[in-house]
């Protein structure tokens, strides 16, 4: 009976969420831009790997996308806490559209080289790094706290739709128009995303006070202190998210190597493998839409169990070359990895003052991105030196470690009374 009541309560929250006009516009824009992002992600990785034949050089794309938020993310959070988030996201989407369109333009002019591609990816990442913290900071102003898990599940849902449709479409488009031209499509989706944010009616209070360097540094320290000193729960959540992200990122950047060297698959088959990962994420997202988990401890228990199961699925990939079985195992990896982000993001939003939300998420993301960089670089190095199977085994080990760490941290979280 209690479970049935919880189901109906979560369903009511879900219906109210979908009646929110601002949420609907936000989700539509995000879904469209995520599809474009899925198109370009596969196109960029395929282009670089096809050009160089090196898994390590291919992972440079991911590293270049990681460095800006890692180095400059906390400073951007200080700025975002002082400006309207809606306007910031419109500007970010518009600039990203222009930068992405410039890559195939340079190609047609005969000017695009690998170093230039790396430079443009890096500059695009400089603008992209501010989007996530701005989005997370605006969400608590759109919905009540009881709907934070659901709106974070919607975030993951739009990302999942993009990863589900984008890579499959990208594989076919690469074959027909070339990897570099797929970026024109991605640029168009970012423009549509910017237009979808114009109707948002969220009213944000401008933060008063000086914007001098001294005040900025003070605000930056306030964000670090909140995460690392005053609220140790944030540090524990960062540890869980970091280890989970290291394994998930390593796996994502292994997929092209797995497809090309292990399965001798083409770009279309790689697209379907990537789509199976996203299908698994979609299953988890739909489950979160109707099941409310508002307490931290059930969330952590679910993360621990999902990490363990995902580790077993990655290990299973080393035991077979059957394409249908691989698709099923990769889908299971997606199901398990989808548990982490919505629960942890909602837990942070519930415990962070709105006036410093962007700073906290920027600091938090910087710590997680260190793990992502380690995962990307480590998986590429192991794949180049010892082969895809060894890299998959290492990734499975990271997932198992994430499960153990999460389980160990549950009693600590109880003692912190979070």
Brief rundown of the structure:
The chain has 418 residues and is mainly α.
Ordered list of secondary-structure elements with their pairings:
Elements: H1 2-18, H2 21-52, H3 55-80, H4 85-108, H5 114-128, H6 131-142, H7 148-177, H8 182-197, H9 213-230, H10 232-262, H11 267-290, H12 296-317, H13 323-337, H14 340-351, H15 357-386, H16 388-415
Helix pairs in contact: 2-3, 2-7, 2-8, 3-5, 3-9, 3-15, 4-5, 4-6, 4-8, 6-15, 7-11, 7-14, 9-10, 9-15, 10-11, 10-14, 10-15, 10-16, 11-13, 12-13, 12-14, 12-16, 15-16
Describe the overall structure:
The chain has 418 residues and is an all-alpha fold. The protein has one domain: Growth Hormone, Chain: A, CATH 1.20.1250. 84% of the residues lie in helices and 0% in strands. The longest helix is centred in the first third of the chain and has 32 residues. It is globular, with a radius of gyration of 21 Å. The two termini are 28 Å apart. The mean pLDDT is 77.
């Amino acid at each position: 009976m209690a479970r049935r009541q919880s189901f109906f309560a979560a369903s009511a929250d879900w219906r109210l969420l979908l009646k929110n006009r601002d949420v609907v516009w936000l989700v539509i824009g995000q879904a469209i831009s995520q599809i474009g992002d899925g198109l370009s992600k596969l196109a960029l990785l395929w282009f670089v790997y096809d050009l160089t034949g090196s898994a390590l050089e291919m992972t440079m794309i991911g590293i270049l996308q990681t460095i800006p938020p890692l180095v400059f993310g906390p400073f951007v959070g200080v700025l975002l806490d002082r400006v309207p988030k809606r306007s910031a996201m419109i500007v970010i989407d518009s600039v990203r559209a222009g930068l992405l369109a410039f890559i195939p333009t340079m190609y047609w002019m005969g000017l695009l080289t690998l170093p230039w591609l790396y430079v443009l990816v890096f500059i695009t990442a400089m603008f992209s790094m501010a989007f996530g913290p701005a989005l997370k900071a605006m969400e608590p102003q759109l919905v009540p706290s009881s709907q934070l898990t659901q709106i974070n599940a919607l975030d993951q849902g739009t990302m999942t739709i993009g990863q589900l449709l984008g890579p499959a479409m990208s594989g076919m488009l690469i074959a027909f128009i070339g990897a570099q031209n797929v970026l024109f499509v991605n640029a168009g989706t970012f423009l549509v995303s910017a237009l979808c944010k114009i109707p948002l009616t969220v009213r944000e209070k401008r933060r008063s006070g000086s914007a001098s360097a001294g005040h900025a540094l003070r605000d930056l320290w306030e964000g670090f202190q909140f995460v690392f000193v005053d609220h140790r729960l944030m540090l524990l959540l960062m540890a869980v998210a970091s280890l989970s992200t290291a394994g998930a990122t390593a796996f994502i950047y292994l997929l092209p190597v797995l497809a090309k060297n292990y399965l001798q698959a083409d770009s279309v088959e790689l697209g379907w493998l990537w789509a199976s990962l996203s299908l698994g994420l979609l299953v988890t997202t739909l489950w979160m839409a109707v099941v409310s988990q508002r307490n931290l401890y059930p969330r952590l228990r679910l993360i621990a169990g999902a990490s363990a199961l995902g580790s077993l699925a990655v290990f299973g990939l080393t035991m077979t070359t059957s394409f249908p079985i691989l698709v099923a195992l990769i889908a299971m990896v997606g199901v398990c990895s989808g548990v982490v982000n919505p629960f942890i993001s909602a837990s942070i939003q519930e415990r962070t003052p709105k006036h410093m939300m962007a700073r906290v998420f920027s600091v938090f993301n910087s710590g997680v991105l260190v793990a992502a960089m380690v995962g990307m670089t480590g998986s590429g190095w192991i794949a180049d030196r010892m082969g895809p199977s060894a890299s998959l085994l290492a990734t499975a080990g990271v997932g198992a470690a994430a499960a153990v760490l999460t389980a160990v941290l549950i009693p600590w979280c109880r003692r912190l009374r979070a």
